[in-house]
Design a protein that fits this description.
alpha+beta; 39% strand
């Protein structure tokens, strides 16, 4: 069985017994031996049976034990500009947490979800009637709101007719004529 979990903005494919280097976990879990539970499980696979979450699998979790803290690989940042003798070399090492995956807890919600769906089928006519009633009450209000702007639009052409017609723009002047210059006599 394997799972894909999300931690620190990254996704990891894990199995029971694997060791991970995650970005530093907040709070007390940095102490070795502490138990951590990841509930942002995106996918669970068990052979050919794969459960994909939307965006997470409901009720699924992955439990792990913290092994300690460590520093990640050294990253070098080198800035350089041509022709001006500008060079800057800096770097850092990210704080990481080492974690061992103990168990993957798949959803027990599949069996529990089947029963509420059956109950929902029986309660569906009642819920449908309850949902339809507020919509029916809201419909006259919506109709009243729609009617007022139309009434205003219908009244506005009378006001437009009272206004004088706009003036037409003046006609364009004809282009100036070119007069040919007299040729020089020889």
């Amino acid at each position: 069985m394997y799972a894909v979990l999300s931690s620190g903005g990254k996704q990891y494919r894990v199995e029971a017994g694997t060791t991970l280097m995650l970005e530093r976990l907040d709070g007390e879990p940095g102490v070795a031996g502490a138990q951590v539970t990841f509930d942002r499980v995106l996918l669970i696979g068990d052979g050919d049976d794969v459960t994909i979450g939307t965006p997470t699998v409901a009720g699924a979790s992955v439990s792990a034990t913290v092994l300690g803290e460590a520093l990640g690989p050294k990253l070098v940042i080198f800035k350089f500009k041509q022709k001006v003798k500008y060079r800057r070399r800096t770097g850092h090492r990210q704080h990481m947490t080492r974690v061992r995956i103990d168990t993957i807890n798949p959803t027990a919600a599949k069996k529990a979800a089947a029963k509420p769906k059956a109950d929902a089928a029986e309660a569906a006519p009642e819920e449908a009637a309850a949902k339809a009633a507020p919509k029916a009450k809201a419909a006259p209000k919506a109709a009243a709101k729609v009617a007022t702007p139309r009434a205003r639009k219908a009244a506005s052409p009378a006001k437009v007719a009272d206004k004088p017609a706009a003036k037409k723009p003046a006609a364009k002047k004809p282009a100036a004529r070119r007069v040919a210059k007299p040729k020089a006599q020889e």
